[in-house]
Amino acid sequence: MRVSHNRDEVGSIGAAPAPLVRPAIYLPSLSRMCTLAIYFQMSTEWPVIIAANRDEYLDRAALDPVTLCDNPHIVGGKDLRAGGTWLGISENGLVAGLLNRRAEGEVNPRARSRGLLCLDALRETTAERAARLAGSQRGSDYNPFNLLIASRDQAFVAYNRCGEIEVVELKPELHLLTNLDVDDFECPKISRSYERFAMLGERAEFLRDPVALRAELAGLLADHSTQLDARGARPNSLCVHRDGYGTRSSSMIFLGRSSVEHYFAAGPPCTTAYHAAAVPRAADTAVANHDVQRGRQ
């Protein structure tokens, strides 16, 4: 697989595998939009800082972060309908986050769960291997998605657009992802909130100890002031409240050189407190192994 380094290049995904799903009657698509921000390699001690809101139907059953896999040990939220995850951390130092991508009118109800692909990626040993796995999938087997894959050393986004998967490698900087391309300023969520996340990322005290300033990061996730989406006149704030739908939970993940911190709010961040959440039990070993590998380079 050749990986794109910008959005104008399309990465080769190799020979397409056999289909995982059969053609089906398609159902109308409802616009769903989670939000994920990643500060990638902006902090020396905390190379991966992730802040994310999960927007979903309020009646879709899910679990707060739990063990999803024992070998490797993976923790993350669990979708009880399909068994996958929207955001998880592995003992190998991987973080993966799944966001549904805007679809043109219809989705396939028989498609393989996108959350299961997120879980598959977390089973890999490196971000590059996980990106290769995502890029090797047949896009038509899934409904549209954006899949973030990050480690201390590399970060990627896999887009599934129009039945084709493109993998893009991210540069070390702030990136925002919703249901369009990464850092797409046509998205009102990104165009309004990027500056706020960037201002926080420019502060030396935040980059030195983001965990200590996580309340300020949480405050950005609780935003209600983003403008309407001109393409559909929909409410488009980071923290969403609609009939039967909205921001179900919020997460902050800090992948450090010597530790991993995970905080979870089991409700909209505007009204729900964050609490320390599960981390992979072998995370400390993964940190040590990562430092040894870097020393050999």
Explain the overall architecture.
The chain is an alpha+beta fold and 297 residues long. It has a single domain (31-296), classed as Penicillin V Acylase, Chain A (4-Layer Sandwich). It has helices at residues 114-122, 127-135, 188-201, 204-208, 214-221, 283-296; strands at 27-28, 35-40, 48-57, 62-70, 73-79, 87-90, 95-100, 106-107, 145-150, 155-161, 164-169, 174-177, 241-242, 245-255, 260-265, 275-276. The strands form three sheets. Strands 2, 3, 12, 13, 14, 15 and 16 form a seven-stranded antiparallel β-sheet that branches. Strands 4-5-6-7-9-10-11 form a seven-stranded antiparallel β-sheet, with helices on one face. A hairpin with a 7-residue loop joins strand 5 and strand 6 (87-90). Helix 1 (114-122) runs antiparallel to helix 2 (127-135). It is globular. It starts with 26 loop residues before the first strand and ends with a helix. The relative contact order is 0.19. The model is unreliable at 6-16 and 18-31 (pLDDT under 50).
